[in-house]
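re the bet — no i am not wrong, look at it urself. input seq straight from the record:
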Amino acid sequence: MVYFGIQSNRTKKITKHVLLSFLFKGGTIIANFLLVPLTIKYLDNVNYGVWLTLTSFVAWFSFFDIGLGHGLRNKFAEALARKDYELAKGYVSTAYYAIGSFCLVLASLALFVSYFIDWTMVFNTSKELQSQLQLLVPIVFTCFSLQLIVKLITTIYTADQRPSVQGMTGFIMAITSLMAIWLLTFTDKSSLLVFGIVFSLIPVIVLYILNVYAFSNEYRIYRPAWSFWKRKYFKEIFGLGLSFFIIQLSMIVLYTTDNFIITQLFGPEEVVPYNIAYKYLNISSILFIMVLTPFWSGVTEAYVKGEFEWIKKSMRNLVKLLILVLVLIFLMTIISPFFYEIWIGNMVAIPFSLTVSMAIFFSVSMLFTPFNYFINGIGKIKLHMYTFSFAALINVPLSIIIVKHTPLGVEGVIIATIICIAPNVILFPMQYQRIVNKKARGIWNK
């Protein structure tokens, strides 16, 4: 087990929740892997590709929380570090009511606009699906809007350095979804509409129950109350959240437009092998992020208290773990043909070149992720905001250029994203070194 530096109470708390997260995430990974062949069996490749593209499209609108989730995470952690519980409740109340208002706007727009759009053109699919999509899209948007609100409770748990609760919630969602699709496979006729409704409601219901439990028990003192909504709290969360909002919007363009680009250039059926390769290699990222997640809020607390030695030791251990993650990605790539054969059989063909491209993408992403979490934890994210904004601006046109002017197929879309994020491998470690050595000036310290 990797320990985060010295044996402080913070370290012990982080270690405990990392171990619990591994257990929950392990179950979630297994459930999600079992879900893929069952979903393909129920829907078929084309409808599954439409569903993957639709959920990616809807995810673009996660910017409607305008970064308040990340802003709440840092500010709530700071308030706890200072033992100012009334301030913490003010931040929670302000975030819930603010995001609730924005999501009401999002859901209303989706309901109104949906009936004026031909979704079969948007998703490059059969006209026969228009009636289903016209009903499904506003339902998915509405559930997504509700999810933006109720998932704030996982932000609170994470800010309190208890990320295993988020892992437990994900595990419950995955198991419930697996049971739902298993039951659907016994029906006589597949339906994208029924599938979409079921899978949109499950996260909302699970997270709502967690909200009721948390604010009735351990987080009762932080229960959202209108009287605690303050404009100054909104400005504090939003001041930090605005930069997070721009970063979040940039990441949406970088990481969720690939499905849409592939759908438009190659057809929705080609989204399926891309996502299968992504889900497979993403195991490495999930495992690493489980360790990094509590590090974010741990850094916030340590930075407020001036405990730089803890931060440095923690980062050294994370870099060691990073090396192991890169080895894991290499081994996963080598055995991928055998794994795909066991996992999905001959239902979908996954080119080895696609897996290699995805492995390079995850390797490059992992190289700067520990430093990214440190930067996010202390809130000095201006450089982060600029690099991701520039990457988002060039990602889509670069993807199209590579696909149309090289022999590369779907792999070209992945390579474009790799090119866009590669500068962070140099810039983020540089910023970390300057900050911990107290030599950061200008953009490096903002």
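see?? The CA atoms of residues 50 and 421 lie 27 Å apart. told u. also The chain has 16 helices and no strands. so pay up
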